[in-house]
Amino acid sequence: MVAPFVVALAIAAAGCASNELVRADDMSAAQHRNEAQREQAAADQDTARAQGAGSAPAPGPPAFDPNEAPRRRAEAAREHARQHESAAKFLEQFEAEECAGIPASSRAACPLLGPLERIEDVPGGVRVTFADRSRVRTAIAEMRCHYAYARARHFDEKVGCPLYVKGIEVRQALDPRAVEIIAHDEVTTKLIRERSREQATFVRGR
């Protein structure tokens, strides 16, 4: 697997006048691409404005250069566009690697959390114990893929399951029949515990 789920790509904004950071999880891959196109178009406009402003400043003592401001804006916009493009590629690659072998048409489906024997709270989230040990490996792969799918779409409620929220991690427990779903903040931990119990299916009699 690539980076843990809690890792959020931060792309340095070197040269950006506002010193903003473009982070992968700020928006969806598609939104990042739209922002990259918008920033590039703005850069092109400022470049054209600078080139059409006239001749270079006359030699001699420093003088006001009307081309300087649009040139700087163009440089900043191009850097911002590059960051958004990199963020989009990161999210798309993350999904591709986490969903290797799973058709694109199947990635939107909510993975089945079960059938389970039990759910118990652990630090940061829950441990779910499957009734069928052979189901665990497939369940982990499905859950990680759907998380990556939801992440690439900025956890849009229309395309994601309630359990798959920003900042969760799905991992094999020490018990080979169990999977742990955890987070690293109290709010997300609470969501995991509530929504896991809402989505879980249990073997009969549980």
Indicate how many domains the architecture comprises: 2
Strand fraction equals 5-15%
Helical content, roughly? 40-55%
What is the average per-residue confidence, as pLDDT, rounded to a whole number? Answer: 87
Order of helices and strands: EEHHEEHEEH
What gyration radius follows from the Cα positions, in whole Å? 24 Å
Alpha plus pi helix count = 4
Oligomer: single chain
Principal-axes geometry comes out as elongated
Question: In angstroms, what separates the terminal alpha carbons?
Answer: 34 Å
Q: In terms of structural class, how would the helical and strand content be classed?
A: alpha+beta
Main sheet record:
4 strands, antiparallel
Q: Give start-end ranges of low-pLDDT stretches.
A: 1-18
Number of strands: 6
**Strands ordered across the widest β-sheet:** 3-4-6-5
Quick structural summary:
This protein is an alpha+beta fold and 206 residues long. The protein has helices at residues 29-51, 68-98, 135-152, 186-199, and strands at residues 10-11, 22-23, 116-122, 125-130, 169-172, 178-182.
What does this protein look like?
With 206 residues, this protein is an alpha+beta fold. It has two domains: 83 residues, no CATH class; 95 residues. The protein contains four helices and six strands, in the order E-E-H-H-E-E-H-E-E-H. The strands form two sheets. Strands 3-4-6-5 form a four-stranded antiparallel beta sheet, with helices on one face. A two-stranded antiparallel sheet has the order 1-2. The longest helix has 31 residues. The two termini are 34 Å apart. The relative contact order is 0.15. The N terminus is likely disordered.
